[in-house]
Design a protein that fits this description.
- This protein is of the alpha/beta class.
- It has one domain: 3-Layer(aba) Sandwich (Rossmann fold).
- Helices cover 47% and strands 17% of the residues.
- It is built from nine helices and seven strands; from the N terminus they run H-H-H-E-H-E-H-E-H-E-H-E-H-H-E-E.
- Strands 3-2-1-4-5-7-6 form a seven-stranded mixed β-sheet, sandwiched between helices.
- The structure holds S-adenosylmethionine.
- The site of S-adenosylmethionine has 21 residues, from helix 1.
């Protein structure tokens, strides 16, 4: 199985939305002039719509942040991190937190370069516990790729934000198997992700998704119908507890599945 690297372009679109919403002071560094120009052009025609979807996207990240905080992880592995600034923000706040960001190699090398620029521009030092590793989540063995960085004794959380909707059912099952294989090797661990319940609304939503799917040669997949479906799936796979929360604002169900 091999991931579709064309999906990587969506990471910059998300960074643009975070920068537009001023969700943090770092996202702007990940938006290239080319993407900024393209989106500004689009936003001339649909400014209110772009505001609305940018806002929802930031709310989703904030909801995920809240779930992360309740679990109190000592070590986070973020799959498909894209240009999310969570790893940077969290490790600047808590330098003891081990944070391993993973994505395709093209994303990881650009992110490393931009993080170095941020260090200079913002006068900060990256935490020595903040790592970036190229991992195709449905190809590479997660544990083999990361075991040198992971402390088996630390409470571990694997996070995937807007990854699973790009995976078909076989790829999704493989991903969860990969996650289980890693979580079996730590003393305490859980997996946090979410399921979108609705497509982008309206004609513009359809057009944006059509554009994304054409460029990235992808589509949107659903894996669960409701919170009960999420619980059944993970409990049947040997997880020991599943917490879910439904957001009306983002039409997502966020779930945290504890392995042990
Ligand atoms: C919409 S972006 C979201 C990025 C980030 N999670 C965020 O919230 O800003 C989707 C990300 O999934 C990554 N991705 C898709 N398939 C992947 C795979 N098989 N392995 C690793 N990353 C993948 C893309 O490269 C891209 O960075």
């Amino acid at each position: 199985m091999k991931g579709n690297e064309k999906i990587a372009f969506t990471a910059e679109a998300v960074a643009f939305m975070r920068a537009r919403e001023n969700s943090d002071k770092f996202s702007k560094y990940f938006v290239s002039p080319k993407i900024e120009h393209k989106f500004k052009l689009v936003s001339r025609f649909i400014p209110a719509y772009l505001d609305k979807i940018s806002h929802k996207r930031v709310v989703l990240s904030n909801d995920i942040d809240r779930f992360i905080k309740t679990y109190e992880p000592e070590q986070i592995i973020e799959l498909a991190c894209g240009y999310s600034t969570r790893g940077l923000v969290f490790t600047q706040r808590d330098p003891k937190l081990v944070y391993v960001e993973t994505d395709f190699s093209s994303v990881i090398s650009r992110k490393r370069k931009i993080l170095r620029e941020i260090e200079t521009s913002e006068g900060i030092n990256l935490s020595k516990n903040h790592h970036l590793v190229a991992v195709d989540a449905i190809n590479s063995d997660l544990y083999d790729s990361l075991h040198g960085l992971i402390n088996k004794k630390k409470r571990t959380l694997i996070v995937a934000e807007t990854l699973t909707s790009y995976l078909n059912s076989a790829e999704h099952d493989f991903l969860v198997g990969n996650i289980e294989h890693l979580l079996e090797r730590v003393e305490e661990g859980a997996y946090l992700s979410h399921e979108g319940m609705k497509m982008l609304p309206g004609l513009f939503g359809k057009l944006l998704l059509f554009y994304r799917n054409k460029v990235a040669k992808t589509r949107s997949y659903r894996h669960f119908d409701d919170a009960q479906g999420i619980k059944d799936y993970f409990l049947n796979r040997g997880f020991v507890g599943v917490k879910t929360s439904e957001s009306q604002v983002t039409s997502n169900i966020i779930y945290l599945a504890k392995r042990k």
